Amino acid sequence: MVNITDKIKEIEDEMRRTQKNKATEYHLGLLKGKLARLRAQLLEPAGGAGSGGGSGFDVSKSGDARVALVGFPSVGKSTFLSKITKTRSEVAAYSFTTLTAIPGVLEYGGAEIQILDLPGIIEGAAEGKGRGRQVISAAKTSDLILMVLDATKRAEQRALLEAELEAVGIRLNREPPNIYLKAKKSGGMKITFQSPPKYLDEKMVYNILRDYKMLNCEVLVRDDEVYMSTTKSTVSASTS
Q1: 164-193 burial, b if ≥16 CB within 10 A, otherwise e?
Q2: Which residues are in the OBG-type G domain (predicted)?
Q3: How far is the CA of 101 from the CAs of 125, 193, 229, in angstroms?
């Protein structure tokens, strides 16, 4: 996994060194595609994508929406879960009390909202420290990420959490890319732009998909602002 994080750092360094202009748009687009693929690989468990997120993290999604509680150790995530649901998550005055994903259900206005109490993450979680990859992988399946912060370190903790999530491609409070993609068994690629593109072109899309080994698919780009955000966006909120 260190190999993947090294590759990610190399690409990020190259992107920082590259001046943004018309001549470099194509190159930067390909780098963004490679970066998104590597970040997705970073969240895959050691046994491969089909083996799940690891012991204690394979919680079936249920209800009308899923909310993940994300924060550093001992900031009150388990207490918050116990207050708003009937689930009793263990609470103690030491770090890393919660070691797995603990689900609870909040009933509100006729809707059932699944709340996930996740283990506290630490700086470097995106690289796997403190079971960080499993925690972030579980958070990525949610519809909303709720940051639980220490009120005395609110700004610092929020900035660190956003950086860890950004490192694996979770874009908070941004619209997801408006793009349709359907894999096929044969027939090659069919790429269509709904309106004249500003940032992308067919060659760039083709090469990004080829990097993902998707050689047979149908793509409709409704809004090429997708170029500015090539990975999943998730709504976030914070509490302290």
Answers
A1: bbebbbbbbebeebebeeeeeeeeebebeb
A2: 65-240
A3: 16, 41, 28
Q: Hey, what CATH class is 53-174+234-239 in?
A: alpha beta
**CA dihedral in degrees (95, 97, 101, 106; nearest 10)?**
-100
- Give the H/E segment covering residue 150: none
User: Is a pLDDT exceeding 80 seen at residue 70?
Assistant: yes
Are 186 and 216 within 8 A, CB to CB?
yes
Is there a contact between 128 and 1 (Cβ–Cβ < 8 Å)?
A: yes
* CB-based contact 128:47 (threshold 8 Å): no
Domain boundaries, the chain: 1-42, 53-174+234-239, 179-222
SS3 call for 170: coil
Euclidean distance between CA atoms 42 and 14, whole angstroms: 19
Least confident span in 27-41, 125-139, 205-219: 125-139
Given a cut of 90, is residue 184 above it in pLDDT? yes
Mean pLDDT of 33-53: 62
Query: Angle formed by the axes of helices 25-42 and 202-211, to 10°?
Result: 30
- Return the closest-CA partner of residue 35 out of 235, 227, 240, 238: 227
Inter-residue long-range contacts of 122-126, CB under 8 Å, 24+ positions, other chains counted: 122/72, 122/73, 123/160, 123/164, 124/164, 125/164, 126/5, 126/42, 126/164, 126/165, 126/167, 126/168
